[in-house]
Each structure stands twice: as C-alpha cells, then as structure tokens.
Design brief:
117 residues; 35% strand; 3 helices; alpha+beta; elongated
Length: 117
C-alpha cells in the first residue's frame, strides 16, 4: 500500500458552494467581486435554471441562474457573509457541499487562487 503524500491537498479542505441569482448580470457582478477578492477560485454561471419554491406563503416559479463556486472550507464563513452583503435577495441560497475527492493539481490551484483563511 502506498504511503499518502503529506503535502498532497486534502479534499475535505475544499467545498463547492451553490448560489442562485435572479439573472446573469447579477450573477456576473457578484462572481467577479468574489474572484477579485479571492474568496473563490472559480465560478461557473449556468443560465436557464427554473426554481419552484414557497416564499411568504405563496408558491413561486421563477427563472434564475445557478452559480457553482470552488473555494476552501476555511473561507466559507467570509464567502457566505460577502454573498449576503452583495445579493439582492432577502434570503439568498448559499450552500456548501464537501468534496470527497479531487485532482491534486486542481485542488492546489484552488488553494493558490484564494486568499489565506
């Protein structure tokens, strides 16, 4: 059995964060700030999302944009707070999903592209 490389990135140190936005312009504005501030390494903006949900007692059916962000777990609190400050929604979707595995070079790139915790 191979000995693990202690310098190799641990996937548990990284998360994928999902955020929805009302349109591509808002998603782009927020995403650019988050990348510029080095809270995330990358944001994929996926248009064409349809969200059906309940809000203030009514069922809503809205077009939205999904943002998929890659960052380090240690930055999640700061990222969550920054998204909340920039986002037009009263309660924006901001959820983090843990990574169970990842390419070491890609995880290294995420670490290098984000600011220290």
């Amino acid at each position: 059995m191979a000995t693990p490389d202690p310098a190799a990135p641990c996937p548990a140190d990284f998360v994928v964060v999902l955020m929805t936005a009302p349109d591509a312009d808002v998603a782009s504005r927020i995403s650019n700030k988050l990348v510029d501030e080095r809270l995330v390494a990358c944001v994929n903006i996926l248009p064409g999302l349809r969200s059906i949900y309940r809000w203030e007692g009514k069922r809503c059916d809205e077009a939205e944009v999904l943002c998929v962000m890659k960052t380090r777990l240690g930055l999640f609190s700061a990222l969550r707070d920054r998204i909340a400050a920039l986002h037009p929604y009263q309660v924006p979707e901001i959820i983090a999903l843990p990574l169970c595995a990842g390419s070491a070079p890609y995880l290294d790139w995420i670490r290098e592209s984000t600011k220290p915790d």
